[in-house]
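User: For my dataset I need records formatted as: sequence, then structure tokens, nothing else. Please produce one.
Assistant:
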Amino acid sequence: MTIIKAQKGTKDILPADMPVWHLMEKNANEIFSRYGAKEIRTPIFEATELFARGVGDTTDIVNKEMYTFEKSERSLTLRPENTAGVVRSFIENGMHRLPMPVKLWYKGPMFRYERPQAGRQRQFHQVGVEVFGIKQPTADAEVILMAVNYLKSLGLNDLSVELNSLGCPECRDEFKLHLKAVLRPYLKDLCPDCQTRYEKNPLRLLDCKVPECQKIFSKPEIQEVIMSDFICEECAEHFNELKKYLDELKINYSINKLLVRGLDYYNRTVFEIKSNNLGSQNAVCGGGRYDSLVRNLGGEDIPAIGFAMGMERLAYLIGEKEDKKTTAFVVSNNPAEAIKLAEELRKAGITCEFDLSNKKFVKQIEKASKTAKYALILGEDELAADKVTVKNLETSEQKTVSRQIVKSEII
């Protein structure tokens, strides 16, 4: 019979992998909670319209990568990202009536149909933060700081922060006109995707990774436009204030004028945090400000900023973590007494196992030495005296104690 395997682009997270995942999840709760963020969990599928309106119908995500299906004459989509879903929940559940800022964090699976590669799957996981209600750059600085501190808590220190400002819709529209004008002579040489972006969303041309397009963008006359300070005075002031805050916080950053991110809802601040240990696909965190998204999805005019991180990439960078050993292993050829003692310890909050198959003593000791810190030996003599022999498997020291006080010997 043919073995059914996991689908391409999906991967089992096995028990040996779980220590790293538990670390990422535990630290997310601890770090983000310090900043006042509350966890939110949104559905894995949403109305397709949410992503078309929120992410943007000119993005690769909406055009090429979404898992969309019809059910009861409704178009539904497995979420390719979670900002749109969090914004939908923010609006639907009346969170705009809460005192601002409203800070939310999430973790969970996302789905995109794209070529699987190192640290990127078709079903992947993200951890992220969204902050609503603050238009000042203090929110931008705090969100970047939150992301940096979370990554550092995972032991990732070889990081670089890249910043850019996309401006507001008004100054961005003027920039798009200049960009289209200088690229018009090279239009036929751009890749098919860029030729489509040229008409629909020229700003996303800068996000193209095709080498031939990159060569065109590096031409002096095009670089002059890309590197120009096109943003208006108000947007420039916002960006300069953010940089001052980051300087005060001693966060090293660089300005990357090509940084536009892949989603249409961003404005003003966009940023990426990169690891120098990942090769060409080295971004571990991406985010930015999306001040019009709440309004565009039917809510009030509330500014917002956030970020997301791919957890598979983080797990790859963190590396393997040693699985914690069980605290105690009951060694006995009396299964009834073994399970009773094991359950007494479990109720006291101690991890404990015993040999379900009732193998010979020597085999049980061998298993205990590989999986536990202590062996709790219940032989005939111990059972007759209502005692337990406690053996420290790390030091080989052992002593026989009353069964009533065995817990205190291993805590």
